[in-house]
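Internal tracking record. Fields below are filled automatically when a chain is submitted to the structure queue. Please do not edit lines marked as system-generated. If the sequence contains nonstandard residues, flag them in the REMARKS field before resubmitting.
Queue: standard
Priority: normal
Entity type: single polypeptide chain
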Amino acid sequence: MPSHADAVMLPAVQPIAEIAWTAGAPLPDEILAATEPVVLRGLVSHWPMVRAAKTSSQAADAYLRGFYRDATVMAMHGAPEIDGRIFYNDDMSGFNFSMQQVRFDAVLDALRAHQDDPRPPTLYVGSTTIDACLPGFTAENDVRLGTRDALASIWVGNRTRIPAHYDLPDNLACVAAGRRRFMLFPPDQLANLYIGPLDLTPAGQAVSLVDFAAADLVRYPRFATAWAHARQAELAAGDAIFIPSMWWHHIEALDSFNVLVNYWWRQSPAYMDTPATTLLHALLTMRDLPPAQRLAWQELFRHYVFESDGSEAAHIPEAARHVLAPIDAMGARMLRAHLLNRMKR
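SYSTEM-GENERATED OUTPUT FOLLOWS
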């Protein structure tokens, strides 16, 4: 099978840095708080789930079923013609898959039934909280992350292609069954990835419109620049990858049965809202201002947000600084209530 680089006639991609890790050894902060991605070979190779997957997909299936307790999940289903690519329909009025709430064991049944199909339908369960779906699984299959309050999720499916997207939290993704190819881009490649709508997305995050398997460089010429900055790695069961916050990542599941476990956490207080909300509000309130006014607001954001060091409020008596003071959980609740009241006007 030709590589994506061959398919789009682009040069080879730089590999993601790798570390051979002792299975089960704790991860230090210099990895979990890094701003560069890294592959951790063998990090979870001691998991019983991984050992089952290395035996066979049937053994991995049986291991998962051992934790199933009548839970339902949201599953994506696409026709064989989409070739595993989770994406929009032809006119981008919707998507090329349907969402169905089904029993988790029914998903496993469908994966088993189509395991040997040369062109199976696309079956994909994404970002499902493990403790709700498979209670007891994390007691046997977990990663020590220190004091981080991480959300552990499971992803199950057959051969799928998830378009490049970013996530706000830091992400430790552990391959528990099958193989996955990760292609990452630094945040500054945003303009070269041709991102689709912000408010109509296949799975909650805006995605690149470029088909990485057959990139149209006439329609998306700047993608060649993004490709030059890309980093790639193929992971097998037992391997893991740390993806820093805001890095764009395209993920391809390569086998007929794939399981991924990931951990998300933020390096910011829990009371902080997602900046994506601010971006949407900025589109509503600032994008269409006259150029001189946009520049004025750009200066305000530079002063109060992007280059804030506390000096911007030093001339105000401490008790009178209000939202310019350091924000804690109580201050965040008050500010959120103030914003909600303003938006109701």
